[in-house]
Amino acid sequence: MSPASQPSSRAGLSGRARRAVRVPLAAVTVMAALAASAGAASAGPAERPGVSGGEAVRYVALGDSFSSGPGVPDQTDATCGRSSRNYPSLIAAELGAASFTDVTCAGADTSHMTAPQATAPPQLDALRPDTTLVTLGIGGNDLDLAGILTRCVILGQLAPYGAPCKSSYTLLGTDEIGSRIATTAPKVAAVLAEIHGRSPNARVLVVGYPAILPDDGTACRPTVSLATGDFPWIRDKEKQLNSMLAQQAGARRDVYVDAYAPSVGHDACKPAGVRWIEPADTAEAAGFHPNAAGHRSTADAALATLTR
Fold this sequence. Notes:
Largest sheet: 5 strands, parallel
Number of domains: 1
Oligomer: single chain
CATH topology: Rossmann fold
Strand order of the largest sheet: 4-1-5-6-7
């Protein structure tokens, strides 16, 4: 893989991508009815069932780099990699929100919902009793997805065939990544409980991750230097993470936003103009993160859920 076609720094991950994803990275995205979202985009705030019931929308966005939009022009907060074109900003504009507070921040995990993240205050401090809408995109950094991908890139360079990264995380019949996902589940549940405690009248949307790699499991080693067999394994772990997030949302009767399905066919292996995930740092976004089109897709999926 040439320097221009892969993340540019240590172990194949760019400096900006590492900062953004734990710093950051998560992996993943699903479709939620574009036809419905088109109708939602044309409706005013008072016409959106389950959003405001005719009352003003007071919206707070919580989450990590897949929500904040590192590298997506224009950046409004360099420390947190926050973009004016991230999906929270698009949702707020479509809803005509009376108030909008975006505290999404690259590198955030569930602990940063109630504790500071460097100079950033706890994200849940942005909630108010009169908040009516909350989006939450979190969980990938609890798994250390950046570390997983770093190991996978290194092993892919040493052993380009087979699934050496999968093997390294499943020694002696264990499933280390599956265990991390299971450990993250109660942390997400605790965050949701805290959100409802602080904003009891808010509708809460739990936003999943878009498809980073091809959904059919095919490899694109000229673009992403993973071993061929690790492409489908990483895809499966990403789907497992999203499934956990959906289960936690359902347990509280919150809404899960499937960002994965709509992004299938727009992963990091696709050419510019088709992909919604950048395979390296570009002018469009940080490496392995959604570009503006990816954020538009996630916003549409979230808006579609508000018409149900």
